[in-house]
Amino acid sequence: KKRKAEEDPGGDAGGVEQPDLDSADVLKLLEPLDRGAMHYILQISCLQHPAVLEEVRRYVDRDPAHRKLFVRGLGWDTTAETLKGVFSQSGEVDEAVIIRDKATQKSRGFGFVSFKHMDGALRALKEPSKRIDGRMTACQFASTSSSSTPCSSITPSINPPPPRPFIEDVSTRKIYVGSVPVGTSADKVLAIFSQFGEIAEGPLGFDRSTGASKGFALIIYRTSEGARKALLDPFKTIDGHQVHCKLAAEG
Asked: RRM domain: from which residue to which, for each copy (predicted)?
């Protein structure tokens, strides 16, 4: 059975024949589609029909795991207000929390950010490394279990998801910098060593309260290639002083 679609006020849909289907018929129509095809059709529908996109957002936002990020590498003095301010640039934040030691109430160096919508979390993850209070931090979805992995059921792709990238052992990416001048700032060290590759964490070795150097620095690169390039010349000059670099594992 078929019925003629009601004419659109603009005349675009006039005369178009549409199948007369109920919800059960639609479900049967969808049964032959594999997961990739379903994702592709849903992606197109979301882009062309705001109502569909809003329904998808409403559905995925019901699970907090789809909206919650884990943030590590925070400074001792970073507050929840600062954390919220940084991530609010990506979307509306419901809550930002700094995890503190129960006995001392000092920050443990990490926290959580919960967005109102999952798309805010996705925007934040486009740049997972963020500078907060002078330190490079890293963020990721707080939940990585298979039952709550974000996008596991809405990834807009007709191809299977790529395998997880291989993460090299930290011992091949972590370098030690000795004889760092006391007056040298963490930003100065970061500027010099970031020339060789993306830095995942650091520089460590600076007093969290005063920012003063402890006489050394630890830097963890995103890949071992960054560390290798930094060590091609193990001697570098910082603020007029010569420092020596090597893989941290060697020490």
From this structure: 67-144, 173-251
